[in-house]
Amino acid sequence: LKLLRELLGENGVIFVSIDDNEQHRLRSLMDLSFGEDNFITNLIWEKKFSPQSDAKWFSDNHDFILVYAKNKLNWFPNLLPRTAKSKARYLNPDNDSRGPWTSADLTVKTYSADYDYPIQTPSGKKVYPTSGRSWSMPKENLAKLIADNRIWFGKNGGNVPRVKIFLTEAQKGIVPLTIWKHTEAGHTQQARQEIKVILEGSELFENPKPPLLIERILRVATQQSENDIVLDSFAGSGTTAHAVLALNKKDGGNRRFILVECEDYADKITAERVRRVIKGVPGAKDENLKNGLGGSFSYFELGAPIEMESILSGDNLPTYKELARYVFYTATGEEFDESVLDEKKNFAGESTNYLVYLFYKPDLEYLKKTALTLDRTKALGTYKKKRRLVFAPTKYLDQRHLDELRIDFAQLPFEIYQLVK
Fold first, then answer.
1. Please, which residues have CB within 8 angstroms of residue 108's CB and are 6 or more apart in sequence?
2. SS3 letters across 23-76
3. Handedness of CA 147, 151, 154, 155 (dihedral sign)
């Protein structure tokens, strides 16, 4: 959790799914990792559409989704699109020319004696705010709203007044609720059926998340017009990638995803699902999924770790390619391209800012004797447009020569240097 927090942008947010057995413990860990002040909410997702008839105590039909921001002051949820059901709440019983409207309470919990006054209804009845509450505005503001036909006293004109909120003037969407129904966010049975169709076989994965659930999270948390990156550190069946591609298809967004999966099904289930939803799933009911969601992705497997303890003992020294990959990415933060690797010329690759060179062999005698010298520097060729970043066990050139040759020197990982000294 602490690592994931470090990976979040300053306006980033994390959603963590958990059942009620461990929810209270996770909340404590999240408070510790993200800070209590960055707690947003604890969503309740209705994961089943039918009750369990064989339940011993209660029929378990929900999961929790804890939501924390890296910095609560920098993140706010997007409004969700209005549904037909939410629009249906707006009616027009008085045939107002401004169109359908709904009404809201005219009182507030914060009591103010100045706002505690009687209101005479059109029927002649006097009404007051309920005990402990007051009206939300002064008399003169209320009078203006009444004159503008924005206060509703009920069909017979004798009810407690409520303020009209017109659909045309309302927010473009609705503020997300903390309870997500399966009709809005999908359910587990739907998810199992869908992955069965995608992978053309029996249920190969237990309890997959439905794409609708992740889509809803994406709608709340990401921006359509930005290049938002969505990281799923426990990718499972690949629902997150599926949801990102599906939502991009629907709204033209440019969201990107990174999936991490350490189980042995990473290729045959997780990545395979992504391949198929990109190309199209013939048996799918959804037309977009049937025709293919489009997009692309790269699949990588982690190489053997470079363990410094093994290097110190002289055992299991990494190959040239392994160390080149390690130092190139560590130094540049860019993807390593092994196709341009040239061990004979000590060339490890090219980044945005550097030509990267590595003087290394998995041989202790070589490491003990090798240093960046003037001859080795000349063998790199003449300086071109980019500076040269050179890794070697040590160097025999002073900083003046390095600057003249446009070279930034980087000593090989300190533990290797300790070994060869």
1. 115, 133, 134, 135, 136
2. HHHHHHHHHHHHCHHHEEEEEEEECCCCCCCCCCCCCCCEEEEEEEECCHHHCC
3. positive
Please, are residues 248 and 256 in contact by the beta-carbon 8 Å criterion? no
pLDDT tens-digit map of 113-122: 889 999 999 9
3-state secondary structure (DSSP) of residue 104: strand
Is residue 238 helix, strand or coil? coil
Q: Which residues of 305-336 are buried (b: 16+ CB within 10 A; e: fewer)?
A: ebeeeebeeeeebbebeebbbbbbeebbeeeb
Closest to 184 measured CA to CA, from 141, 221, 213? 213
Asked if 155 and 142 count as a contact pair (C-beta separation under 8 A), the reply is: no
Residues 161 and 118 sit within 8 Å (Cβ to Cβ): no
pLDDT, residue 421, reads 37
Hey, CA dihedral for 360, 362, 368, 369, is it positive or negative? Answer: negative
Please compute the mean of the pLDDT values over residues 137-154 and round it to a whole number: 92
Query: Does residue 373 have a pLDDT over 90?
Result: yes
Tens digit of pLDDT for each residue in 155-191?
889 999 999 999 888 777 888 889 999 988 999 988 9
Whole-number Å distance between alpha carbons of 297 and 89: 42
Q: What is the pLDDT of residues 245-296, one digit of tens each?
A: 999 999 999 999 999 999 999 999 999 999 999 999 998 888 999 999 999 9
Q: What is the pLDDT of residue 311?
A: 55
Compute the distance between CA of residue 173 and CA of residue 193 in angstroms, rounded to an integer: 31
Give CA–CA dist 101/150, Å, rounded: 10
CA distance 112 to 383: 76
Interatomic CA distance for residues 360 and 318, integer angstroms: 10
